[in-house]
Specification:
Length: about 170
């Protein structure tokens, strides 16, 4: 805050009331437990089927016949709203994850990042917080694929490449 009388320049630029120098505007709280208690009935398996359509998350209806189909199916199962609220990927990291399954197979970096996230999240959900060799190998492959895509000017600007960066940041 620059202590201007009509509000500091930052607050004027953002068009918000100035609270003064050294005052915290936002406080971030972990609301996970409170929300889980408050909305327990919403996250019950019976209600989840009604609120999440197959088209929303790109559910694979046929048995997976190849590696990409298996990856898409595993990703859909990991972002499912039926998972405990503390472990929900889409609920905790953003709705963009609901779009990932239909983009699997279009970008090698995205495929590798999705595979890494699935492996790491599966371990996290069962209480194994430290990565094992499989997770580290997949993470290394994903980083190498991402590096190759970022070195290609055309592929570096694609939404799938950006999404792979986001998926790998969730793994971190």
């Amino acid at each position: 805050c620059d202590a201007s009388t009509a509000g500091c320049s930052w607050c004027r630029q953002l068009n918000i009331p100035c609270v003064g120098y050294g005052q915290q505007r936002y406080i971030f709280k972990d609301e996970g437990r409170r929300l889980k208690r408050r909305h327990r009935e919403f996250f019950s398996p019976a209600n989840v089927a009604d609120t999440t359509s197959a088209a929303q998350v790109g559910v694979v209806r046929a048995p997976p016949s190849n590696e990409l189909a298996r990856l898409a199916q595993a990703f859909v199962s990991q972002i499912s709203l039926s998972i405990d609220i503390g472990h929900q990927l889409a609920g905790n990291f953003g709705g963009f994850l609901l779009e990932v399954p239909r983009r699997i197979g279009t970008n090698e970096a995205l495929d590798a990042a999705a595979d890494t996230l699935i492996t790491a999240h599966t371990r996290y959900c069962i209480g194994q917080l430290n990565p094992n060799t499989e997770t580290l190998v997949k993470h290394s492959r994903a980083l190498n694929a991402l590096r190759r895509y970022l070195n290609d000017p055309a592929k570096a600007r694609s939404s799938e490449t950006l999404c792979s960066v986001m998926l790998l940041s969730i793994c971190e």
